[in-house]
Amino acid sequence: MNGRVQFSAPKLTKINRLILIAAGVGFILQALLTAVGALNLTSILGLSSSGLSKGLVFQFITYPFVDSQFMSVLFNGLVLWFIGSELESSWGEKVYTRFLTINVLAVGLIYALVCFVFFFGTSLHYASLVGLTGLNYALLISYAVLYPDREMLLMMIFPVKARYFCLILAAIEFYFALSSGGMSSWAHILSMGVAFILVKYQTQPVVRKMLNPGPSKPKSKAKLSIVKDDEKPPKYWQ
Questions:
Q1: Alpha carbon 182 to chain centroid, angstroms
Q2: Computed from CA positions of residues 111, 81, 45, 198, in that sequence, does the dihedral angle turn out positive or negative?
Q3: Which segment of 34-38, 184-188, 218-222 scores lowest on mean pLDDT?
Q4: Which residue has the higher pLDDT, 204 or 213?
Q5: Mean pLDDT score, 146-170
Q6: Which tens digit of pLDDT belongs to each residue from 141-156?
Q7: Which of 154, 19, 25 is nearest to 100 (CA)?
Q8: Residues forming beta bridges with residue 47, ordered by sequence position
Q9: Which of 81, 210, 95, 198 lies closest to 145, judged by CA?
Q10: Helix-, strand-, coil-residue percentages of the chain, each rounded to 5
């Protein structure tokens, strides 16, 4: 041993690769169209109750894939690569895709409904929810539930256990939600909550059916439970 710490990046898995490509294309198109003064892509593909009232229902699916902030796209891409790829490898493509889809749709529906009912005609009615931030917070919460004692780097410097890392993130996002008055931070908190429920209550029939509707194995009597063994990645919803 030479005493040096070797860094090994995880393999970028299939679903995450497709998400990153879509997000990259969305960012580039947004930048180009804004530069030439053609249109603002976030107002079309981003999720808003105003857009939905005009019939742009595709916004429920497209809003995570458009963003105008480079650092946001970069950070979200790294989280998706490092955290998302490990979760996809553990869960499998089908369950991982369903997990992301449920989170995106649930957060989008509640966000749009709240904006439409309580903020109709205000600036929040027209504000667009965009980017992968909420989805990445969902992945981080899931990772913290599955691997609570693993260490993560806070601010890329301080090693903190995953459970505390995510509590800090949630506290920061809650502060932004209260101080800024914007709905995006509340949407991110909601995304964390949805992810926590899906992973924490994975053994419940309703949750299990949503994430893996395939036929169960009749001969198996084993019950699913959260595995905290870091040596072997746990497999869920099987």
A1: 19
A2: negative
A3: 218-222
A4: 204
A5: 77
A6: 998 888 888 777 766 6
A7: 19
A8: 129
A9: 198
A10: 65, 5, 35
Quick one: which H or E segment has residue 23? Answer: helix 14-35
Task: Tell me, yes or no, if the pTM score tops 0.85.
Answer: no
Helix (H, G, I), strand (E, B) or coil at 126: helix
Domain positions in the chain: 14-211
Of 15, 23, 49, 11, residue with least CA distance to 132: 23
The arithmetic mean of pLDDT across residues 5-15, rounded, is: 71
Q: Are strands 151-154 and 158-161 parallel, antiparallel or unpaired?
A: antiparallel
Q: Which two tokens stand for residue 140?
A: 């981080």
Count of C-beta atoms within a 10 Å radius of residue 20? 20
Q: How far apart are CA 33 and CA 229, in angstroms?
A: 48
**Whole-number Å distance between alpha carbons of 224 and 201:** 10
Which CATH superfamily includes the segment(s) 14-211?
Rhomboid-like (1.20.1540.10)
